[in-house]
Prior knowledge:
- This protein has two domains: 4-123, Beta Polymerase, domain 2; 129-186, no CATH class.
- Helix content is 54%, strand content 19%.
- It has nine helices and seven strands, in the order H-E-H-E-H-E-H-E-E-H-E-E-H-H-H-H.
- The longest helix is centred in the C-terminal third of the chain and has 17 residues, at 170-186.
- It is globular and about 55 Å long.
Amino acid sequence: MRTIERILNLVCEFLNKKNIDYVIVGGFAVLFYGNPRTTMDIDYVIQLKDEDIPILIKFLQENGFHADEYDMRAALKERSHCTVEDKETMFRLDIKGVYNEMDERSLRNKRSMMFNDIAAWIASPEDTIANKLVFAREQDIKDALGIYVRQYDTLDMDYLEKTAKRIGVHDALSDLRKKYERQKKQS
Protein backbone atom coordinates (compact mmCIF):
# COMPACT_ATOMS: atom_id res chain seq x y z
CA MET A 1 0.00 0.00 0.00
CA ARG A 2 1.41 3.39 -0.93
CA THR A 3 1.92 6.17 1.56
CA ILE A 4 0.69 9.74 1.38
CA GLU A 5 4.34 10.76 0.87
CA ARG A 6 4.56 8.50 -2.20
CA ILE A 7 1.37 10.08 -3.55
CA LEU A 8 2.82 13.54 -2.96
CA ASN A 9 5.98 12.59 -4.86
CA LEU A 10 4.03 11.05 -7.73
CA VAL A 11 1.69 14.01 -8.25
CA CYS A 12 4.30 16.74 -7.74
CA GLU A 13 6.73 15.06 -10.13
CA PHE A 14 4.01 14.99 -12.80
CA LEU A 15 2.97 18.63 -12.24
CA ASN A 16 6.61 19.73 -12.33
CA LYS A 17 7.31 17.85 -15.59
CA LYS A 18 4.20 19.33 -17.22
CA ASN A 19 5.03 22.84 -15.96
CA ILE A 20 1.64 23.14 -14.27
CA ASP A 21 1.83 25.87 -11.64
CA TYR A 22 0.69 24.66 -8.21
CA VAL A 23 1.14 25.09 -4.49
CA ILE A 24 0.41 22.69 -1.63
CA VAL A 25 -1.68 24.28 1.11
CA GLY A 26 -3.61 23.04 4.14
CA GLY A 27 -2.65 20.21 6.46
CA PHE A 28 0.36 19.02 4.50
CA ALA A 29 1.84 22.55 4.55
CA VAL A 30 1.25 22.59 8.31
CA LEU A 31 3.11 19.28 8.65
CA PHE A 32 6.00 20.57 6.57
CA TYR A 33 6.49 23.52 8.91
CA GLY A 34 6.86 21.20 11.89
CA ASN A 35 3.42 21.12 13.42
CA PRO A 36 2.53 17.46 14.00
CA ARG A 37 -1.00 16.52 12.96
CA THR A 38 -2.78 13.89 10.94
CA THR A 39 -4.13 14.43 7.47
CA MET A 40 -5.70 12.16 4.90
CA ASP A 41 -5.40 14.54 1.99
CA ILE A 42 -3.08 16.79 0.08
CA ASP A 43 -4.61 20.14 -0.82
CA TYR A 44 -3.46 21.63 -4.13
CA VAL A 45 -4.16 25.06 -5.54
CA ILE A 46 -3.45 24.64 -9.25
CA GLN A 47 -3.33 27.11 -12.12
CA LEU A 48 -4.91 24.75 -14.67
CA LYS A 49 -5.29 25.66 -18.30
CA ASP A 50 -8.27 24.13 -20.03
CA GLU A 51 -6.03 21.92 -22.17
CA ASP A 52 -4.22 20.61 -19.05
CA ILE A 53 -7.37 19.14 -17.49
CA PRO A 54 -7.60 15.98 -19.66
CA ILE A 55 -3.84 15.45 -19.32
CA LEU A 56 -4.08 15.64 -15.52
CA ILE A 57 -7.14 13.38 -15.41
CA LYS A 58 -5.47 10.78 -17.64
CA PHE A 59 -2.36 10.80 -15.43
CA LEU A 60 -4.44 10.39 -12.28
CA GLN A 61 -6.52 7.55 -13.73
CA GLU A 62 -3.42 5.74 -14.99
CA ASN A 63 -1.91 6.00 -11.52
CA GLY A 64 -4.75 4.53 -9.50
CA PHE A 65 -6.98 7.49 -8.68
CA HIS A 66 -10.72 7.90 -9.09
CA ALA A 67 -10.65 11.01 -11.27
CA ASP A 68 -13.32 12.38 -13.56
CA GLU A 69 -12.89 15.18 -16.09
CA TYR A 70 -16.51 16.29 -15.80
CA ASP A 71 -16.21 16.56 -11.98
CA MET A 72 -13.00 18.55 -12.23
CA ARG A 73 -14.38 20.93 -14.85
CA ALA A 74 -17.57 21.42 -12.82
CA ALA A 75 -15.59 22.12 -9.63
CA LEU A 76 -13.36 24.65 -11.39
CA LYS A 77 -16.36 26.34 -13.02
CA GLU A 78 -18.15 26.53 -9.65
CA ARG A 79 -14.96 27.82 -8.01
CA SER A 80 -15.00 24.83 -5.69
CA HIS A 81 -12.61 21.90 -5.27
CA CYS A 82 -12.49 18.46 -6.82
CA THR A 83 -11.73 15.49 -4.58
CA VAL A 84 -9.69 12.74 -6.22
CA GLU A 85 -9.41 9.51 -4.24
CA ASP A 86 -6.61 7.00 -4.33
CA LYS A 87 -8.12 3.59 -5.16
CA GLU A 88 -5.56 1.79 -2.98
CA THR A 89 -5.85 3.83 0.21
CA MET A 90 -8.15 6.34 1.84
CA PHE A 91 -5.88 9.24 0.85
CA ARG A 92 -7.29 12.06 -1.24
CA LEU A 93 -6.17 14.95 -3.36
CA ASP A 94 -8.26 18.08 -3.02
CA ILE A 95 -7.65 20.14 -6.15
CA LYS A 96 -8.89 23.67 -6.64
CA GLY A 97 -8.13 26.52 -8.99
CA VAL A 98 -6.86 29.99 -8.26
CA TYR A 99 -10.05 31.81 -7.26
CA ASN A 100 -9.16 34.71 -5.00
CA GLU A 101 -6.41 36.82 -3.48
CA MET A 102 -5.61 34.14 -0.90
CA ASP A 103 -4.97 31.58 -3.65
CA GLU A 104 -2.96 34.09 -5.72
CA ARG A 105 -0.86 35.03 -2.69
CA SER A 106 -0.15 31.40 -1.83
CA LEU A 107 0.88 30.63 -5.40
CA ARG A 108 3.03 33.77 -5.72
CA ASN A 109 4.89 33.21 -2.42
CA LYS A 110 5.29 29.44 -2.61
CA ARG A 111 8.48 27.79 -1.41
CA SER A 112 10.33 24.92 -2.99
CA MET A 113 10.95 21.91 -0.79
CA MET A 114 12.69 18.67 -1.59
CA PHE A 115 10.79 15.57 -0.68
CA ASN A 116 12.55 12.29 -1.49
CA ASP A 117 14.44 13.95 -4.36
CA ILE A 118 11.27 15.49 -5.82
CA ALA A 119 10.77 19.24 -5.74
CA ALA A 120 7.38 20.24 -4.36
CA TRP A 121 5.93 23.74 -4.08
CA ILE A 122 4.42 24.55 -0.70
CA ALA A 123 2.69 27.65 0.68
CA SER A 124 4.91 29.92 2.75
CA PRO A 125 4.55 29.69 6.53
CA GLU A 126 3.24 33.27 6.64
CA ASP A 127 0.55 32.58 4.04
CA THR A 128 -0.35 29.29 5.71
CA ILE A 129 -0.84 31.09 9.04
CA ALA A 130 -2.90 33.86 7.43
CA ASN A 131 -5.05 31.38 5.51
CA LYS A 132 -5.64 29.28 8.63
CA LEU A 133 -6.74 32.41 10.51
CA VAL A 134 -9.26 33.15 7.75
CA PHE A 135 -10.89 29.74 8.13
CA ALA A 136 -10.61 29.97 11.94
CA ARG A 137 -11.95 26.53 12.85
CA GLU A 138 -10.48 25.05 16.04
CA GLN A 139 -7.99 22.90 14.09
CA ASP A 140 -7.03 25.89 11.93
CA ILE A 141 -6.17 27.98 15.00
CA LYS A 142 -4.10 25.10 16.40
CA ASP A 143 -2.33 24.75 13.06
CA ALA A 144 -1.60 28.49 12.85
CA LEU A 145 -0.26 28.55 16.40
CA GLY A 146 1.90 25.49 15.78
CA ILE A 147 3.53 27.08 12.75
CA TYR A 148 3.89 30.41 14.56
CA VAL A 149 5.67 28.70 17.48
CA ARG A 150 7.92 26.45 15.38
CA GLN A 151 8.81 29.02 12.71
CA TYR A 152 8.83 32.16 14.88
CA ASP A 153 12.50 33.03 14.33
CA THR A 154 12.22 32.82 10.54
CA LEU A 155 8.78 34.36 9.93
CA ASP A 156 8.54 37.60 7.97
CA MET A 157 6.53 39.40 10.66
CA ASP A 158 6.14 42.59 8.62
CA TYR A 159 4.57 40.66 5.75
CA LEU A 160 2.39 38.63 8.11
CA GLU A 161 1.14 41.78 9.89
CA LYS A 162 0.35 43.58 6.62
CA THR A 163 -1.38 40.54 5.17
CA ALA A 164 -3.42 39.97 8.33
CA LYS A 165 -4.60 43.60 8.26
CA ARG A 166 -5.45 43.46 4.56
CA ILE A 167 -7.52 40.28 4.83
CA GLY A 168 -9.24 41.16 8.11
CA VAL A 169 -7.59 38.73 10.52
CA HIS A 170 -5.29 41.10 12.40
CA ASP A 171 -7.17 40.60 15.69
CA ALA A 172 -6.82 36.82 15.27
CA LEU A 173 -3.08 37.27 14.63
CA SER A 174 -2.81 39.40 17.80
CA ASP A 175 -4.56 36.61 19.75
CA LEU A 176 -2.12 34.11 18.25
CA ARG A 177 0.84 36.26 19.33
CA LYS A 178 -0.56 36.42 22.89
CA LYS A 179 -0.95 32.62 23.01
CA TYR A 180 2.64 32.27 21.78
CA GLU A 181 3.91 34.65 24.46
CA ARG A 182 1.98 32.76 27.18
CA GLN A 183 3.45 29.46 25.98
CA LYS A 184 6.92 30.95 25.90
CA LYS A 185 6.62 32.18 29.52
CA GLN A 186 5.43 28.75 30.66
CA SER A 187 8.41 27.02 29.03
